[in-house]
Amino acid sequence: MKIYATLLLVFLIPVRLIAQQRPTTRPVVHLRTVIDLTHTLNANTPTYEETKEPTYRVNTVATLGKDHYFAREICLPEHFGTHLDAPAHFAKGQWTVDQIPPERLMTRLIVVDETAKVENNSDYQLSAADITNWEKLHGPIPAKAVVVLRTGWETRWNSAKDYRNPDAKGVMHFPGFGMDAAKLLVEGRKVYGLGIDTLSIDYGPSPDFPVHQYSLAHGLYHLENVANLPSVPANGALVIVAPMKLEGGSGAPVRILAIVQ
Ligand SMILES: [Zn+2]
């Protein structure tokens, strides 16, 4: 009898604790809209390096008519279309794409819109003052967020020439992050990732990619060629960053989904 009473107590206590922990008014999360921040991959996708042969190749290996199922094989660079740069892309001993902890891939999305400044200056570099001005309007940038710079460059996506925007010497011109902005976000705000709607986090004319070298060495990841930024708010969205899990990869094509609450 004593044993039964003890057993009953053992079972009852956890049940009571669970019952007590259950909130009476459970917060309801409304997933109002999911915005796809990813460009569709195809042979016209602009690339950082200009190549004679297309770097994206697709080959149909089975058809419904002949094989009763449809399948293709594809060949593409790791840094193609909307993609993620792993820390190992520029920093020895840092995470490859498969090693990035998954909790860093679902977080808050911050969008800094500098479209107006870029209209007058294709080589615009985001400054630390731009970040602090953004915070005056929208509140502090939370730690662990992904901060994406919206430049308006995606309107050029369908023309690789306009998107790369080379001058007569072949030097590309498009906007990017300045070093002071990167330092503030990495060391001051402790963010997990930086993103942009151009080919590179560093601005087009950069010969040595200082922001890549600095922020990837600090364990951040980069998102490049991000799409559909006009459809997400400056603050308040969540983001799911889902790169292909390539073993030892320097980066990978990524599906980015913003959840607007
Ligand atoms: Zn890249």
How would you summarize the topology of this molecule?
Layout: H1 2-21, E1 33-36, E2 57-62, H2 64-67, E3 71-75, E4 83-85, E5 106-113, H3 115-120, E6 125-126, H4 128-138, E7 146-150, H5 160-164, E8 176-177, H6 179-188, E9 193-196, H7 210-217, E10 221-224, E11 237-243, E12 251-260
Parallel strand pairs: 5-7, 6-8, 7-9, 9-10
Antiparallel strand pairs: 1-12, 2-3, 4-10, 4-12, 5-11, 11-12
This protein binds zinc ion.
The site of zinc ion has 5 residues, from β4.
Pick out its properties:
single chain, 261 residues, alpha/beta, Glucose Oxidase, domain 1, 7-stranded mixed barrel, two-stranded antiparallel ribbon, 7 helices, 12 strands, disordered N terminus, binds zinc ion
Explain how this protein is built.
This protein is an alpha/beta fold. It has a single domain (33-260), classed as 3-Layer(bba) Sandwich (Glucose Oxidase, domain 1), CATH 3.50.30. It is built from seven helices and twelve strands. It has a seven-stranded mixed β-barrel. The protein has a two-stranded antiparallel ribbon with strand order 2-3. Strands 6-8 form a two-stranded parallel sheet. A hairpin with a 7-residue loop joins β11 and β12 (251-260). 34% of the residues are buried. Bound molecules: zinc ion. Zinc ion is lined by residues 79, 83, 85, 224, 251. Zinc ion binds at residues 79, 83, 85, 224, 251.
Short description:
With 261 residues, the protein is an alpha/beta fold. It has helices spanning 2-21, 64-67, 115-120, 128-138, 160-164, 179-188, 210-217; strands at 33-36, 57-62, 71-75, 83-85, 106-113, 125-126, 146-150, 176-177, 193-196, 221-224, 237-243, 251-260. The strands form three sheets. The chain has a seven-stranded mixed barrel. Strands 2-3 form a two-stranded antiparallel sheet.
